[in-house]
Amino acid sequence: MAVRRKKAATSRSSQHSHPSSLSKSSFGLLTVLILALSFILALFRWANDDPIGLYHHVGSYVNWDARREEVKSAFITSWDAYFNNAWGYDRYHPVSEKGSQMSPNGLGWIIVDSLDTIMLMNLTDRLVEPRKWLQRRLNYNQAQDVNTFEMTIRMLGGLLSAHYLATKLPYAASRRDSVYLAKAVELADRLLPAYESRSGIPYASVHLAKAKGLISHTDGGSSSTAEAGTVQLEMKYLSYLTGNDTYWRKAERAMEVLSDNHAEDGLVPIFVHPDSGKFTSREIRLGSRGDSYYEYLVKQYLQTSGKEPVYLEMWEEALEGIQKHLITTTKHSGLKFVAELPQGIGGPLSPKMDHLVCFLPGLIAISATQGHTLSKARTLPNWDDKKEDQIQLARDLMKTCWGMYAVTKTGLAPEIAWFHVDEEDLAPTPGDRPLKPTRNSLMAWKEDYIVKPLDAHNLQRPETVESLFVMWRITQDPLYREWGWKIFSAFEKHTKLDRKRGYTSVNDVNAIPPPSRNNMESFWLAETLKYLYLLFSPNDFLPLTEVVFNTEAHIFPVLSKVKWQTGWSRD
Q1: Which of 52, 63, 226, 472 is the most exposed place for a label (fewest CB within 10 A)?
Q2: Taking a C-beta distance cutoff of 8 angstroms, is the pair 412, 454 a contact?
Q3: What is the 3-state secondary structure of 201-239?
Q4: pLDDT in tens, 437-455
Q5: Counting runs of H as helices and runs of E as strands, what totals does the chain give?
Q6: Per-residue confidence at 12, pLDDT binned at 50, 70, 90?
Q7: Which of the residues are catalytic?
Q8: CA distances to 35, 43, 54 from 38, in Å
Q9: Tens digit of pLDDT for each residue in 358-369?
Q10: Are 325 and 282 contacting, i.e. CB atoms less than 8 angstroms apart?
Q11: What SS3 state is found at 557?
Q12: CB contact set of 31 (below 8 Å; sequence gap of 6+)
């Protein structure tokens, strides 16, 4: 009996102890599940608040050729819509499927601007009609005032780029290719009177039929500094092709006059008068009316294979000035951005940055490496800590430009961004004090970016994807390709029209769907889609050490043998 009682007690004890053990086990499992769920939730929140993204970590597994083909398809849709609905017109209005002119008989604004994109995408079947149009219809003898700068970078640049690529790309060549250079010479000769001012600073406009330079009707007759300093690549290349140094000398004279103003720390005010050659304002900015002056300092140096060091000297002085006077940080996330100086050096900063400024990250990077990859540039004897800092600045500003897209509802950037900034960070010479560290938080970024209603439109601008292309080629960081893909996807989602009408600029990047502006910009075809296509192309296609892009993304060769030297020197 005693044995049975003992066994029974043991059995009861066993039965009572099993639930306790099970309870402990269940508790442990529940704890693990809670921790796992907490980790997943935290990871989800982190991913949602991460403005950088994760997909670039698997960039080597992405089919970039397929993505490039999608960009090509977008170009075909855009071009075919223009061809079918507005052929020969200077503007295309895709919503209404109509065209309009900028001159009595049209100047081929979209046609000429798109030529080299058609060529590099190997769309030879779509090259036939543009060539015919140039030969049979393009006539510059029109009673029309045209902007000197725009005609130079878009039309002259487009013709010269088409000439170059027709010799560079076998599939783009034809027996009629002489038309590109012939029309370029004809146009340049009609633009030369713009340089007949008393100072040599080109007049803002030219009357085509009269071949007469015209002083600006606004801004007290002043020309834009950016426009005066952004005609040199085109005119120098034309001199190289023709052997006529007139174009070269006229264009470089403007650079001499601008240099003779001795702008403090290399930062030029945005207006200069063609009669006196003197600056007529104090305002300094790297957006509209200032931007491409700095761009052409670097690119003139690169275009002639470093044989004009004066332009590199001017750029390096300007870059130090930019870092000293214009780079400051946002309040919540410490993003670096390029502010403006409405009152000039010594005055307070304005926390405003045009999307146009987003050419700058790529320019800084290409100036530091001379177009080489970063890994190669670091092995060259002239590499130093200053250049390493410049690459980091390029990365920081690239992030800010990406932020213009990341913070909006459509994923498209506004024309202008404003920023929340602590008052002390708008004091003069921000480069003389420590800047805030950057915080990669989408929530913090959204607190810092301000999109005002009048600035909320998107014009299909190329500057950010231009810099993404250059940053990818130089750093080989797939992050820049991934950001480019996200931007392209946003254009596809929010700007593509039905019935194959093409793509449109939009009025509000924070409205879904965004209201249409009923205009497809020529630089959508000439620049934005071209840079996206190149971003997803193999790196040996148009290497940055062999070509230079003008400010409209038209492609010129780096010139190894040049007849002429710089015709001036700095005082």
Answers
A1: 63
A2: no
A3: CCCCEEECCCCEEECCCCHHHCEEHHHHCCCHHHHHHHH
A4: 999 999 999 999 999 999 9
A5: 20, 14
A6: very low
A7: 415
A8: 5, 8, 20
A9: 999 999 999 999
A10: no
A11: strand
A12: none
Is pLDDT at 47 greater than 90 in this prediction?
A: no
How far apart CA 28 and CA 131 sit, in angstroms, is: 76
Give DSSP secondary structure letters for 69-131. HHHHHHHHHHHHHHHHHHTT-SEEETTTTEEE-SSSS---HHHHHHHHHHHHTT-GGGTHHHH
Indicate the pLDDT class of residue 2, thresholds 50, 70 and 90: very low
Quote the tokens at residue 307. 């044989």
Q: Are the C-beta atoms of residues 260 and 571 closer than 8 Å to each other?
A: yes
- Reduced to 3 states (helix: H, G, I; strand: E, B; else coil), residue 63 is coil
Cβ 396 vs Cβ 467: under 8 Å: no
Neighbours of 127 (CB within 10 A): 21
Alpha carbon distance 51, 40 (integer Å): 18
What is the pLDDT confidence band of residue 56, given thresholds at 50, 70 and 90?
low
For the chain, the helix, strand and coil percentages under 3-state DSSP, each to the nearest 5: 55, 10, 35
What sign for the dihedral angle of Cα 411, 412, 414, 417? positive
d(Cα 330, Cα 425) in Å, to the nearest integer?
Answer: 8
Which of 235, 178, 177, 156 lies closest to 202 in space, CA to CA? Answer: 235
SS3 6: helix
What is the Cα–Cα distance from 119 to 131, expressed in whole angstroms? 12
* Sign of the alpha-carbon dihedral angle for 237, 240, 241, 244: positive
CA 177 and chain centroid, separation: 30
Angle at 421 between CA 415 and CA 427, to 5 degrees: 110
Least confident of 21-35, 317-331, 389-403, 489-503: 21-35
Q: What is the pLDDT of residues 272-312, one digit of tens each?
A: 999 999 999 999 999 999 999 999 999 999 999 999 999 99
Nearest by Cα to 235 from 264, 255, 212: 255
Which of 319, 307, 295 lies closest to 549 in space, CA to CA? Answer: 295
pLDDT digits (tens, 9 = 90+) for 544-560: 999 999 999 999 999 99
Higher pLDDT, 151 or 39: 151
User: Per residue in 309-326, pLDDT tens?
Assistant: 999 999 999 999 999 999
Q: Which residue type occupies 458?
A: N
The CA distance from 309 to 313, in Å, is 6
**Higher confidence at residue 18 or residue 419?**
419
Name the average pLDDT for the chain: 94
Distance (Å, whole) CA 553 – CA 116: 9
Report yes or no: 349 and 326 within 8 Å, Cβ to Cβ.
yes
CA-nearest of 232, 117, 5, 190 to 528 is 117
Tokens of 494: 């929010």
**Which pLDDT value is given to residue 7?**
45
